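#struct-pred
JK: can someone run the complex with 1-deoxynojirimycin? inputs below
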Amino acid sequence: MTDSAQPWWTGAVGYQAYIRSFADTTGSGVGDLRGIHDHLDHLEWLGVDAVWINPFNPSPGHDHGYDVSNYVDVDPQHGTLADFDDLVAEATRRDIRIIVDTVPNHTSNEHAWFEAAVADPTGPFRDYYIWRDPGPDGGPPNNWVSHFGGPAWTFEPESGQYYCHLFLPEQPDLNWRNPAVADEFESILRFWFERGASGFRIDVAHGCVKDPELRDNPQIRPIDESMSPRAIFDSYDHLHDLDQDDNVHIFRRWNTVAAEYDAVLIGEIGADRVERASRYVTNGDALHQLFFLRSTWAEWVPSDWVEAITSMQTITTTGVSWALSCHDRPRAVTRFVNDGVDTARAQKRSFSLTTLFMALGGMPFLYQGEALGLSDGIVDPSSISDPLAARHPEWADEGRDGCRTPMPWDGSANNGFSTGTPWLRSEPRTGAETVAGQLADPEALIHRYRDLVAFRHGSPQLWSGEAATVAIGGEALAIERPNSFAVSNLGSEAATVDLPDGDWILGFSSCGGSAIQPASGTARVGAETTHLYIR
Ligand code: NOJ
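RT: done, structure tokens with the ligand placed:
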């Protein structure tokens, strides 16, 4: 599938399985590793090369797995280590790789390291975390705020010190300036590589190292109590808590470990400035790819998309795992409904961008349900579960449950996700929104996604060879390579675009129509449509 002279992830397509909501085989209402194993047929049919699984380590679950209490085991609600081994074996048999999610910025407050750090302030584990005496007024040591609301510091009365947490108080941040923490993580990586993991998705990779002096962040706009946690977080310039220069060193070490196992490192990089985000990938000696978060929250503003993609491509043509949706923000189809635009048109917009992503150099990822064209699910209000919403009912709109509702497999109870009560109860999906419903309908979107993935695999000229990115007017762009030309017209009117000299074949259009049409000279590209030309 991929050129053997290149790393396996070149030209590959990834899939994100949000394990809690993917498939439950035990009736517990929570998805498990065996559920992924049992649906490998479907993933193989779709043609994906790698599956990133959200955290499945033991966890008290305050942030649905992103509060890990043991990095080298499986939470019983998601299965066992033996289930992981079975999954890897069966996936490998089908040429599908497994990418594990790891959470190095913070642990659970129930991790043995943190429990020891609290129990013995003079012991070796204290310095695994970031502790400081109160500030002069007796309050937190600096002005850092948590992503999830309130200060990024919680007071621990026994020792009279505060500990740092960029997320929930139940998620204390590790002290990456302590070499012992780096050693621990090298062991954790090796543990999963030895069990057959082919890479890691690295949570909050931009946050691990903090300013050594823990200086205040500059406040960039006024804050008042009516603002949401996210708005308050965005009211600071995160100069000292995020994206420190030393952070890249962590991943240089990880890179040498990953190389021993032919494994990929994909970091979640929340730095919005492309030149900062790309530092993690441009030398090729740290992360292999990054998730550029802007593409998972951006709404449908064509000029913004053109700017985001062209500016990132200018800096790295291979270092971004482009994704439109994930478990943290409303799905693209929900975000792309605006100004009277209906779901079908939002699906068209979404597919158009995904078609373009297939012509970019990094490994694009499809979020579970994306190939069905799903919008966010409608969650039963009594089931609201994301801490962002559950702890701040007034900001329920910012909750992430809507994009996490169970995967709709078929028209049976709970859409075939579980025979029990799903952990997140939501309105059933219609038959046409389910995997079984779409498989039975040759016109359904899922077949278009499958065709697109197959087209990428069969057309290496789409993602290999020198790439030049050209903005065409404000709302269209093209990626030109020696033997391919991808053009996206994101505007709401059809556009006429000059093709590079020579004879081309229109190999794939996000708008459908018969494939394999000859083309030369100029091309007419419909509104919100991407064409992939090859020769
Ligand atoms: C990013 C993860 O994607 C999100 O779900 C989580 O809440 C935070 N990191 C904290 O781990």
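RT: quick notes.
The radius of gyration is 23 Å.
The mean pLDDT is 96.
JK: thanks, will look after standup
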